[in-house]
Amino acid sequence: MLKNFWYALEFADKVGREPRRATCLGQEFVLYRTEAGTPICLSDLCVHRGGSLSMGTLNGDCIACPYHGWQYDSDGACVKIPANASERKIPRKARVDAYPAVERHGMVWAFLGDLPEDERPPIPDIPQWGDPAFRAVQTEMVIDANYERTFENVVDASHTPFVHGTAFGNPAKPEIPDFRIRSDDWSAEADIQLSPPPPKGLWGWLSRNKPRPEYVTVTNGWYLPNVVKLHVRLPIGDLILYDFNIPLSQDRTLVKILGFRNFFTGAWADRDARKRIEKILLQDRPVVEAQRPELLPFDLSDELHVRSDGLQVAYRRRRAQLIKDGWWVGGDDVVTGGAPQRSATIIASPARRDNPELASAWVHKARNPGDPR
Amino acid sequence: MLKNFWYALEFADKVGREPRRATCLGQEFVLYRTEAGTPICLSDLCVHRGGSLSMGTLNGDCIACPYHGWQYDSDGACVKIPANASERKIPRKARVDAYPAVERHGMVWAFLGDLPEDERPPIPDIPQWGDPAFRAVQTEMVIDANYERTFENVVDASHTPFVHGTAFGNPAKPEIPDFRIRSDDWSAEADIQLSPPPPKGLWGWLSRNKPRPEYVTVTNGWYLPNVVKLHVRLPIGDLILYDFNIPLSQDRTLVKILGFRNFFTGAWADRDARKRIEKILLQDRPVVEAQRPELLPFDLSDELHVRSDGLQVAYRRRRAQLIKDGWWVGGDDVVTGGAPQRSATIIASPARRDNPELASAWVHKARNPGDPR
Amino acid sequence: MLKNFWYALEFADKVGREPRRATCLGQEFVLYRTEAGTPICLSDLCVHRGGSLSMGTLNGDCIACPYHGWQYDSDGACVKIPANASERKIPRKARVDAYPAVERHGMVWAFLGDLPEDERPPIPDIPQWGDPAFRAVQTEMVIDANYERTFENVVDASHTPFVHGTAFGNPAKPEIPDFRIRSDDWSAEADIQLSPPPPKGLWGWLSRNKPRPEYVTVTNGWYLPNVVKLHVRLPIGDLILYDFNIPLSQDRTLVKILGFRNFFTGAWADRDARKRIEKILLQDRPVVEAQRPELLPFDLSDELHVRSDGLQVAYRRRRAQLIKDGWWVGGDDVVTGGAPQRSATIIASPARRDNPELASAWVHKARNPGDPR
């Protein structure tokens, strides 16, 4: 799992004035909005007795721990310890890590890492968000598989005819013509020719008089750390999925999807659009959950790659560099899941690096740059 | 988890002439009474094939393993191997560890360790037991949390207004005035001023004409290894809880409670008293189960303490000494829970130390003084 | 768990033209038959993306992965990669391990190891199979216990009076007269005198006029790696059970049983015969699942043995030799169960040894000869 990235943790309309827990990279966070509507992301772990802040309540822009009522402001500094006499000073160490958070493209994103602002990788663009030509639906599903397995699965065009033969792949024409990859440090994309099956159901009926092309171009792309774009050009219009693969733990993934279409853009067609997306997820799920080893190998030679795996190989190569750079978190130092822990480590937030006078003010130790093996 | 203590393993009236399994410190024991009524506590693990004695049957004062019928007397010595010809001698190694057991204050206690009798820490006093002014109820609940977390939770007065605001805390007045701790090697106690909410339900109705004080004194105390006393002075009388936090495994606790009251001492009020105690447990449970890290840290600096945490800090300091003395059991060498084991280790009973001629007579190895890290 | 043996993985009539998953030694296999009816056993793990072949489909004698449709022939060589242009060559590394498989005695057996044909231990004989004097029933059950625990349990005559006192043991006469063991490198057998209880139910009623002997001879035998024969001589005829203890993981066993009888050989009595066998299994299950430690110890001195345990002690001695020879697989290097893995290791098949030019052609590493500790 990679730190130092912006992670889309929740649909923006799900984050409000009720604290909401988000789990990512094997750590828990609390999300909420200030009275002015700004999204906030704090470590969910009270430094006093490890209470879960997301089970607490908001008091103005502060959040109060459910256990002893300690209140933290939106920068993570504790501003009230109710059991103390009011004249007693709040200890400097009474603070939790606060992670930069923004709302963009219909999602709340948090920067999980300690890089200074100008060194942070970008948030991927989602130009369809807010474009009146497009209509969006949301859907989500928990998959009992590693997030890099579910991520690579969506990047992968060549499984379509076999796993989605009844939905949008064509088992009679599984060959993938060679494609060219456009990539930069944070993403890779390709236009891939797929043979489409005849559309079915509502969409099929409504497009029954349109000619069906021999090939359609599907644009497949990944955006680090965990976003996949899938752009399918149907006879009746464009279907563009943004797929967020959120690592709950090493082997559990929360997949959130924003699905855009520029046809049947009325609310009446939302249910059908959502059902189609969920059908695809349900076809992938048993196959991906059965993959072994459970975790995406580190060595390229641990699996066998062919030409059509180019986007995944590009991901594994880029990942290997980032692991060398110390961006990997994982192995034993996870807070949630697995064996019970005796001490809590967390992902360092920017304040740890930016604010030297706080150097000794942190109760929870930062997770080590992971030795991934 | 600490060895060398008396552990209250079961309510006395639950231990009789049917073998009963008790789990504690990650090890299993069988409890039963002799024909004369004396409580017996043996390691539950037959040395022949690891059968669970508590699934067996009593024969006089002996217990027979359910698997091959080996019979052990109340000192743990095997006295019969049914498959053997009757003239064949019982091997010296055919013995399980027997732990000193007594009935006191309505509980069956077993000494889980090998200290000689005069070096054993005391069983805490429960003066309300047998006092005709008091009426007792029993209750119990399994909590998916570490026993030191549930133990500290009951010791802790300052969570009351937040977690029990609807039961007996007062969220409007959460401040805890400084208190003085009375302690010795095995216990610590303090009188703490809490602001009470108005009592509700049956007790509220029956005390509706009594004046309500601004503060009530709650006496909170811990008794090693795992007992907490909570003495609440209500307008209508005294409610005194003894709370036994039995470690089933590292992260599972069986909480047993003896609850005494000196008001409404008729059986008719038992159900209401039990329900009130269970309500408190059910309020604590989700908060304690969500605490992270799951296990109580060893280093004081892994959490942040304030004045009102004095009793818990005293516990952690005393625990640190006992760990240095080698009283800790834990880590990998647990018999129950977690990964399947290839060999069984058990907590040494006094006979191993008292009886040098038995030195080579033990099949199961004693668990090492735990390196707790 | 021991490699280099023939394992009975499935009842022969359950293996056909639908791929079927079998789990053994903590690894997954796919079983199917060629069009000519020959049973095939391949590693279930596609080398491309770790897809589970047993979720795929047959195409002639080949099996296609459900994920990307790669087709493997019955020797494990990949013969088709659908995403590739048809003129592109199949890489040499596109192959999975194929394990020798045969149908014999009503079971499909696979050789899980890499020994050359002439060094392989034999498949045990089951002379009742195909003998018209005998009628067979099948039954199976999953037991949450280590396979060596369930295996030794069936070898063990002395538990019969205690665990099966209501079925075929006699609790009033539990003594086991000394017996002589006949053994070779791969098996051990003994004729053991047991006192029988009066038969009940249908069999009892039908034999109500036959005299009841004081002792009956039970022939108990084990055949490496995991087969137990239990031959019970009832007043009305012979009941002969072959019991296959298949290790799904370290602590989960699939017990398959072939049960032969030479009385009431009509189909009408099958249901009763199957019920009697299942009753025995259900009596054993709670006792065996409660055994501690969960895994059969490596050191003889970790449990206490008596004369009647001779067959089990012979097994443990023979096992110790095979562990020294490097036939043990286990410990951390299991593919299924337990913690999620980052790389897949598998049991080497004979081709790895027989075919030096394939030395560099294997994607999955072979599991190490286990250091069992």
From TrEMBL, chains A, B, C:
InterPro entries given in the database record:
Cholesterol_7-desaturase, Rieske_2Fe-2S, Rieske_2Fe-2S_sf, VanA_C_cat
Q: Where is the Rieske domain?
A: 6-110
Please give the superkingdom of this protein's source.
Bacteria
The record's keywords, sorted A to Z, are: 2Fe-2S, Dioxygenase, Iron, Iron-sulfur, Metal-binding, Oxidoreductase
For whether the record's keyword set contains Iron, the answer is yes
Q: Which GO terms describe its molecular function?
A: 2 iron, 2 sulfur cluster binding; dioxygenase activity; metal ion binding; monooxygenase activity; oxidoreductase activity, acting on paired donors, with incorporation or reduction of molecular oxygen
Q: Which Pfam families match?
A: Rieske, VanA_C
Q: Which PANTHER family match?
A: BLR4922 PROTEIN (PTHR21266:SF59), IRON-SULFUR DOMAIN CONTAINING PROTEIN (PTHR21266)
Q: What is this protein called?
A: Aromatic ring-hydroxylating dioxygenase subunit alpha
